[in-house]
Write a structure and sequence with these properties.
Helices cover 29% and strands 26% of the residues. By secondary structure, it is α+β, with helices and mostly antiparallel strands. It has a five-stranded mixed β-sheet with strand order 4-1-3-2-5, covered by helices on one side. The chain is elongated, with a radius of gyration of 25 Å. InterPro entries: Acylphosphatase-like_dom. Keywords: Signal. This is Acylphosphatase-like domain-containing protein.
Length: 149
Amino acid sequence: MTSPPPLLFLIAVILIHSISSFTYFPKYHSLSALPHRPHPTRFLPPPSSSLSCTSSDFVQCKITVTDHTSGKYYVAQAKNEATNFRKLTGKLSDSPGRCEMIVEGKKKQIEGFLRWCKKGAGLGGVPGQVNEEWSEATGVFTSFTVDSE
């Protein structure tokens, strides 16, 4: 095997150096110097805000799904859907053949979560029986937790 010509080697070193020193944020020299942007929260805005929500926007729904919920896949997908996609709080209790969820959040988000529950989890999701009971939000939940029996 022959060594690369010195000119080609020099061009490669210059190219690699110029790419590594290129930044997408010319104003800042490192990513740690970027301005901090707070993460959006799940809580109500202050009442003095012009965008404040009414208490009727936040509700609680008890969802019971029977049939086709056995296994950890449905539980993991339900938690993922509720927390990451819908920003809901609540509790999920899993037992063989039955899954009970108490979720709190904006009514629109809960309605979307109910549609997901009725569709079933995953690509080959087979929906089960879905029952729902609506009530006022209590505000007891700060996150979405899973209790398995």
